[in-house]
Design brief:
Oligomer: single chain
Order of helices and strands: EHEEE
Protein name: Glyoxalase/Bleomycin resistance /Dioxygenase superfamily protein
InterPro entries: Glyas_Bleomycin-R_OHBP_Dase, Glyas_Fos-R_dOase_dom
Pfam families: Glyoxalase (PF00903)
Strand content: 35-45%
Number of strands: 4
Largest sheet: 4 strands, mixed
CATH topology of one domain: 2,3-Dihydroxybiphenyl 1,2-Dioxygenase, domain 1
Number of helices: 1
Distance between the termini: 33 Å
Length: about 70
């Protein structure tokens, strides 16, 4: 299936984020590796990547602490 809408988010904790998007939002785990997980629902795909993978040249590198935090 083709996905028409894809989002990539950098997160501090892959496991907590995965639990949130599966249990609260209802997305289904599609693939995972050490540094990222991909979740799908219909034609939507969400990639959660560890913010530890950002190098100092990435445009989000100095913004790692900004945004919304879920506890």
């Amino acid at each position: 299936m083709d996905h028409f809408f894809r989002v990539k988010l950098y997160v501090n904790d892959i496991e907590k984020s995965l639990l949130f998007y599966e249990e609260v939002i209802g997305l289904k785990l599609y693939k995972r590796n050490m540094h990222a997980v991909r979740l799908n629902h219909d034609q939507f795909s969400l990639l959660l990547a560890s913010d530890s993978t950002l190098n100092e040249n990435h445009y989000f590198y100095d913004r790692k602490e900004r945004g919304m935090a879920l506890n």
